[in-house]
Amino acid sequence: MVHQESTGFCQVCNKNMLLRRKGTNHILHLILSLITGGLWIIIWVLVTIKVGGWRCTTCGTKSARDLLR
Ligand SMILES: [Zn+2]
């Protein structure tokens, strides 16, 4: 599983921390979108919103960055 890393503000640690989330395989989703004639884009968006939660690597709390992305 690919992970993406970024920095952002953690409300629990009360400072900017290293954040991590599960990466989305966008190439796979692109191929599936082409095969299904675009219908897969709906699932692609849902997966990206649900799975793409930024979490603080120190305390594991979901970051407010979720609301921005
Ligand atoms: Zn934290």
Walkthrough of the structure:
- It is a single chain.
- The protein contains 3 helices and 3 strands, in the order ββααβα.
- The protein is an alpha+beta fold and 69 residues long.
- The protein has one domain.
- It has a 3-stranded antiparallel β-sheet with strand order 1-2-3, with no helix packed on it.
- Strand 1 and strand 2 form a beta hairpin.
- The chain is elongated, with a radius of gyration of 14 Å.
- The structure holds zinc ion (ZN).
- The site of zinc ion has 8 residues, from loops.
Based on CA inertia axes, which overall geometry fits?
elongated
Order of strands across the widest beta sheet? Answer: 1-2-3
Order of helices and strands: EEHHEH
Q: How many beta-strand segments?
A: 3
Broad structural category: alpha+beta
Helix content: 25-40%
Uncertain segments are none
Number of domains: 1
Biggest β-sheet strands, sense, barrel: 3 strands, antiparallel
**Termini separation (Å)?**
20 Å
**Tally of separate helices:** 3
Roughly what is the average pLDDT, rounded to an integer?
A: 83
Report the portion of residues in β strands.
25-35%
- Radius of gyration using CA atoms only: 14 Å
Bound molecules: zinc ion
